[in-house]
């Protein structure tokens, strides 16, 4: 299916952006070693890293944030936790990126550990925040509602301005690539993945930024209740399983060994990674549903 293009198409850039191309990131020298503990906290800082093409890791040791750079304006995915904006902005500055050149912030899901820094990042950049319609109200309010499996135990986050909805399967054009929204409800009602084809010279790879796929909840929520997220999660996992996926990135880097892959300890390109992540999440969901039917869910 041909993706519908997001209508704004960097409209915010206007003609001024065309006249003055965005400054492209450059690797700071000297190359600082990564010092992430195995049980790294969400706000533990790490220096930025180049992934491939014009894609950069600008998150922390515990929470992923991705920069997709283009002379027409940059795109950022996710904004980290409490200190997310501070950490991400420091990394962007280290790469020589002007925050005002960020035109869109794409969001995975409406939980404070991934959007805690988005309000400030949006303020400092002036970017449009793009999400699925199911997450938009929560992002604007800074709090989820009872449709969220973890509602009773979630921390609020700073309310986000300039939130717009993107249709499932629609695309955002950013220079020569189209970043496509992949609906991934299950962990939350409004979860999104984002995929695109990234090229470096003549080599092109399918990049997939997966939302969290864990079926965890507070003490009252039941995935198996009518209208709850069991069925949407199964559909999400089928989508993840079949996705074009050479390079998997996950909202928590540990879920895809992203730090190890950035350090060169494991291969960056792992074409089976989406399928494997989907399989393990399917097994966990089955267990969860059987626990609910036996009244032994945690
Ligand atoms: Zn979450």
Automatic annotation (TrEMBL):
Keyword Signal: yes
Gene3D superfamilies cross-referenced by the UniProt entry: Ribonuclease Z/Hydroxyacylglutathione hydrolase-like
Domain Metallo-beta-lactamase residue range list: 62-252
Keyword Signal included in the entry's annotation: yes
SMART domains registered for this protein in UniProt: Lactamase_B
Pfam families membership: Lactamase_B
Top-level taxon in the UniProt lineage: Bacteria
Keywords linked to the UniProt accession: Signal
InterPro entries for this protein: Metallo-B-lactamas (IPR001279), NDM-1-like (IPR050855), RibonucZ/Hydroxyglut_hydro (IPR036866)
Signal peptide span: 1-18
PANTHER family, A to Z: METALLO-BETA-LACTAMASE DOMAIN-CONTAINING, METALLO-BETA-LACTAMASE DOMAIN-CONTAINING PROTEIN
Name this protein carries in UniProt: Subclass B3 metallo-beta-lactamase
Organism classification: Bacteria, Pseudomonadati, Pseudomonadota, Gammaproteobacteria, Lysobacterales
């Amino acid at each position: 299916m041909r993706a519908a293009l997001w209508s704004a198409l960097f409209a915010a850039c206007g003609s001024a952006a065309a006249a003055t191309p965005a400054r492209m990131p450059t690797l700071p020298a000297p190359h600082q070693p990564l010092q992430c503990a195995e049980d790294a906290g969400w706000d533990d800082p790490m220096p930025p890293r180049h992934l491939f093409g014009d894609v950069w890791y600008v998150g922390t040791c515990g929470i992923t944030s991705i920069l997709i750079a283009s002379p027409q304006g940059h795109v950022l995915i996710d904004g980290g936790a409490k200190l997310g904006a501070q950490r991400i902005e420091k990394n962007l500055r280290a790469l020589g990126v002007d925050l005002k050149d960020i035109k869109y912030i794409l969001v995975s899901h409406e939980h404070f550990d991934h959007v805690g820094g988005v309000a400030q990042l949006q303020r400092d950049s002036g970017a449009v925040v793009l999400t699925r319609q199911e997450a938009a109200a929560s992002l604007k309010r800074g709090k989820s509602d009872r449709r969220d499996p973890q509602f009773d135990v979630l921390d609020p986050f700073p309310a986000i301005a300039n939130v717009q909805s993107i249709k499932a399967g629609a695309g955002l054009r950013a220079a020569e690539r189209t970043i496509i929204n992949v609906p991934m409800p299950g962990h939350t009602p409004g979860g999104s993945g984002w995929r695109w084809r990234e090229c470096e010279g003549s080599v092109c790879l399918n990049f997939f930024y997966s939302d969290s796929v864990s079926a965890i909840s507070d003490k009252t929520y039941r995935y198996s209740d009518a209208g709850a997220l069991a069925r949407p999660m199964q559909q999400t996992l089928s989508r993840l399983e079949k996705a074009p996926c050479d390079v998997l990135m996950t909202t928590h880097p540990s879920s895809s060994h992203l730090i190890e892959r950035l350090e060169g300890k494991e291969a960056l390109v792992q074409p089976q990674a989406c399928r494997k992540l989907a399989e393990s999440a399917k097994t966990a969901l089955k267990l969860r549903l059987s626990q609910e039917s036996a009244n032994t869910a945690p």
